[in-house]
Amino acid sequence: xxxxxxxxxxxxxxxxxxxxxxxxxxxxxxxxxxxxxxxxxxxxxxxxxxxxxxxxxxxxxxxxxxxxxxxxxxxxxxxxxxxxxxxxxxxxxxxxxxxxxxxxxxxxxxxxxxxxxxxxxxxxxxxxxxxxxxxxxxxxxxxxxxxxxxxxxxxxxxx
Length: 159
Hints:
Elements: H1 2-10, E1 19-23, H2 24-29, H3 31-43, E2 47-53, H4 59-65, E3 70-73, H5 75-79, H6 85-101, E4 104-107, H7 113-121, E5 126-127, H8 138-142, H9 150-157
Parallel strand pairs: 1-2, 2-3, 3-4, 4-5
């Protein structure tokens, strides 16, 4: 952990500026060895996020055992969110779980305004996907390419 903080410092970054995204299956392969490392990183201020939540090995065990600050709802749930009640119920449960644990829920793969609206109705306040902004260098994203969808994002971003 100290080595990571030293590397961040050499780039002029604070630990809070880094978020590591981890998959629960990889964590569970070496649970004992990973535990001390993740707690040390967290104690230094580095944010930890569980990626592709809902499709991995032991997501609930990981959330309970490790100091995650966020979970990323797998894009599979978001892609089919308008297909019916079952998918909506699962997605809503993920958002509620994150809220109850006091961590952020980030919806992956938002591709259209319907998905965004459904997620907003669940109080999921963080998301990513081509509808919001295509991937790219930070300088391009900061130029706000998402503004082409500003009418859909006004409530979410409180613009």
